[in-house]
Amino acid sequence: MIQTVATTPYDDQKPGTSGLRKKVPHFQQPNYAENFLQAIFDASERAPGATIVIGGDGRFFNADVVRKAIRMAAANGVGKVVVGRDGLLSTPAASNLIRQRKAAGGIILSASHNPGGPDGDFGIKYNIANGGPAPEGITDAIYRRTREITEYRIVDEDAPDLGTLGTTRLGEMEVEIVDPVADYAALMDTLFDFGAIRAAIAGGLTLRFDAMHAVTGPYAHEILERRLGAPAGTVINGTPSEDFGGGHPDPNVVWAAPLVDLLMGPTAPDFGAASDGDGDRNMILGRGIVVTPSDSLAVLAANAHLAPGYARGIAGIARSMPTSGAADRVAQKRGIGLFETPTGWKFFGNLLDAGKVTICGEESAGTGSDHVREKDGLWAVLLWLNILAVRKASVAEIVQAHWREFGRNYYQRHDYEEVDKAAAEGLMESLRDRLASMAGQRFGTLVVSQADDFSYRDPIDGSVSTGQGVRIVFSGGSRIVFRLSGTGTKGATLRVYIERYEPESGRLDMSIDEALGELVRTADAIGEITKRTGRAEPDVRT
Ligand code: VG1
Ligand code: CO
Question: Region labeled Disordered — which residues (predicted)?
């Protein structure tokens, strides 16, 4: 029986960089999740009887909202829902399922790398029929709907048991519970030379994958250990837990420190990797080396043709604006297109759909290709393994050879977390006010050549996104970018991105401090970071 329940709007349901993210208790307010879900059903296009995919990263509150979403789908004319067993689907696996099942869209429950648990974060994101995050036109429509909502629809029957595979009915709607790993693993098998990787592992290539107690555990156990023959124990922290073992499932040098220590130590395996809460990010390490995400994107783009799925070469590369220009050098030398988009995977969807690019990436540890419409952590791991298996060189050798061929973009991101919101907004405002007069200004040895607030016109649909981050470029090409995060749930997070290019013939083996020290000091001088935020140091350097 369909129930229509009266409700009143919340005024803070505007989706950010990647869906709506709030603290769990915030989401547990009466009708908070229901309102947002109903707004998705109201504002998204769907033929009657259409299929939608539902699943999430398994964090606390995931199963509750999966059951709610199933019951609301049944009351909103959805013909069929495809749901991951136990409500689990990694973000790239959900994207794949949407495409495979020709679904009208998907509801992905995740706050990605943010901590989970009763006091942690939760999130809801809507993906469209191409498998990718809804573009701004749709997220804006969802937000407008949340502001005027007066009722939501839900069936009063319980959702079926999420642990039992197979198809049942809920009212008029079909509910299919699927193995979350099977279709995804099959897709990976079509893209990569599993035989070559298996042979390399059998021949002595050693690896370690840290699933960080998050959703990729079951995927990595199946693919790396069972299909590729890596020994048991290769995948660590491989059982998803509702609070990610109490940690941040964020694959960077701070939150994945034990893995980094292993790879820097005397018993390091050849290859190390980690993924985030919902499985779309990746960190790549080799013995004695952490590969920056921007370098990883460039290396993957330059070597993708070594994997069967990309043997014909790649059409082009897209990167988010704050991501380093390392990929640009690859595009230039190989004569393929390079697109610079705002932060967030939703901006890659049109370029991928139009066949303009094959590989995309972000400095925030996101890399992916046209095989789905999300970034994909395990995909990046497998492409690296495929490249290692073919080139028979170490990670460090591959990266150093890459720098010798394309030059090196020294790069670091500084995050200032939970900064006072007004102070952070004031900092950005002040930068914007000074942009017009900045060109020609000198800071130490650095002279500003160009300063602007990034705006993007989508080359496919013509939509324009403004205010995407302040860029200050110096003569010689070094660059500082300032922007505020759109995924945080408390205060504001200021991100400062610092980059310096050294050509092939230049100094390729400096330490990060040596290469970027002056730029870091300049960022503080121009941004007045310490003065305005009261912070002498960033919380995270990645
Ligand atoms: C961050 C990253 C961005 C990424 C987004 C979602 O956004 O910077 O590159 O696309 O998270 O990733 P922001 O607005 O906080 O800088 V995930 O793995 O959190 O879905
Ligand atoms: Co994520």
Answer: 1-21
